[in-house]
Amino acid sequence: MANTQAMCNSFKTEILQAYHNFYATNAARTINTADTFKGALFYASGSLGAGTTIYSATSEVTSSTANYTAGGNPFTQTNPALVSGSAQWTPSAPLVWTGVTIVAFDALLVYNSSQGARAVSVHNFGSQTINNGTFSLTMPVSGGLISIT
């Protein structure tokens, strides 16, 4: 199996069911705070893709890996925007892991840790190996990390 880049199928219906709040001042919900979204790294041997429904530690970079915490890192929130007819969400800062040693990882799972670890999307960036270094995932300048057209 291999990790495949995709927006998770479950996310597509869950946004219509109001499970995910990317907007900090959403008057439509009784809780007026944005959910917490995280990004977790996965080994290239994983099988994440469109069918992924929740975050699971299966195939995740192990917690025994130097300076990596299971569950990944939280994103720095920004409000979604409408750009050229597409609803887009891009965090305002990169995800950074420093002093890590990780062999053969290739995917990031974006998930909503506020709502039962529901999966949002899988991003495949090709197999990487870091040896006691810094791994930084820079967010896209255009197109959004999450884009709905």
Number of helical runs? 1
Identify the strand order in the major beta sheet: 1-7-6-2-3
Question: Biggest sheet: strands, sense, closure?
Answer: 5 strands, antiparallel
Q: Work out the count of structural domains.
A: 1
Between the first and last Cα atoms, what is the distance in angstroms?
29 Å
Rounded mean pLDDT is 90
Radius of gyration: 15 Å
Structural class: mainly beta
User: Can you tell me the residue ranges where pLDDT is under 50 for at least 5 consecutive residues?
Assistant: none
Percent of residues in beta strands? 35-45%
Shape: globular
Count of individual beta strands: 8
The proportion of residues forming helix, as a percent range, comes to: under 10%
Order of helices and strands: EHEEEEEEE
Q: Would you write up a description of this structure?
A:
This protein is mainly β and 149 residues long. The model has no long low-confidence stretch (mean pLDDT 90). It has 1 helix and 8 strands. The chain has one domain (6-148). It is globular, with a radius of gyration of 15 Å. The longest helix has 6 residues, at 9-14. It has a 5-stranded antiparallel sheet. A 3-stranded antiparallel sheet has the order 4-5-8, with no helix packed on it.
Short note summarizing the structure:
The chain has 149 residues and is mostly beta strands.
Q: What are the main properties of this structure?
A:
149 residues, three-stranded antiparallel beta sheet, five-stranded antiparallel beta sheet, mainly beta
Strand and helix layout:
Elements: E1 6-7, H1 9-14, E2 37-43, E3 73-74, E4 81-83, E5 86-89, E6 95-112, E7 118-137, E8 146-148
Antiparallel strand pairs: 1-7, 2-3, 2-6, 4-5, 5-8, 6-7
